[in-house]
Each structure stands twice: as C-alpha cells, then as structure tokens.
Amino acid sequence: MSHESFIQKVAERAGLSRIEAEAIAHATMRTLSERLTGGEAEDLANQLPRSFREDLLPTSEHAESFGVAEFRRRVAERAEVDEEKAAAGIVAVLATIRDTVTGKEWHDVMGQLGKEFAQLVETTG
C-alpha cells in the first residue's frame, strides 16, 4: 500500500482531514515504536509504507508497558490534536495496519499490545 492510500484510509475511517490523518499516523507509529519490542517494530516497518520507517525505528529493544489511555495521550501530544481526535485516529491507523500487513504480523503486534488494544479495532471495518 502506498503512503497516500494509507493516509486516505485513515482520514476516511476517522473522519479527519488529510493533514490531521498524516500527523496522527506518524504519531501513532512513533508511539508504537515505544510500545513494541525493537524487533517487532522493525518487522512492522518492513510491511508498511517506507515513509513510516523512521517513525518505527526502535528507541530500545525493550517495549515500554503502558495502556490505551497513555498511548492516546502520547499520540495527541505528538500530533497536536485533542484526545478525542487522537482516539479516532489511533483506531483508524490500527485498522489500516491490520488491512496492510500479513495476518501473522498483525497477530504478533496484537500479541505485544494486548487485549485492550485489540478491542479497539475488533469491529472496525
């Protein structure tokens, strides 16, 4: 999937402008790089548009442990949007990742993020 297609899907799913979708997508990827182990972040980067590679570069081999609320706060701060827009954007980004990567990769990502994150995208088309 191209970067433009990815951002367009995020914007449509979340009801965001293209500019907001772009900012939230990059902020979500950056936050994922903190929440996933270094190896998993690299695996994910290899299946997404190259434009997200730098965002997903691991800051550490070890994943930080934080829940959805902290994830949303970090994305909102990085994207400079309110937490409501960040929440909608995160769900849209995760759903678009799910549609882009292999089933195995999605399972690996959700295995590290946990049930709380999986529930966010369970019913998202």
UniProtKB/TrEMBL annotation:
<protein>
    <submittedName>
        <fullName>DUF2267 domain-containing protein</fullName>
    </submittedName>
</protein>
<dbReference type="Pfam" id="PF10025">
    <property type="entry name" value="DUF2267"/>
</dbReference>
<dbReference type="InterPro" id="IPR038282">
    <property type="entry name" value="DUF2267_sf"/>
</dbReference>
<dbReference type="InterPro" id="IPR018727">
    <property type="entry name" value="DUF2267"/>
</dbReference>
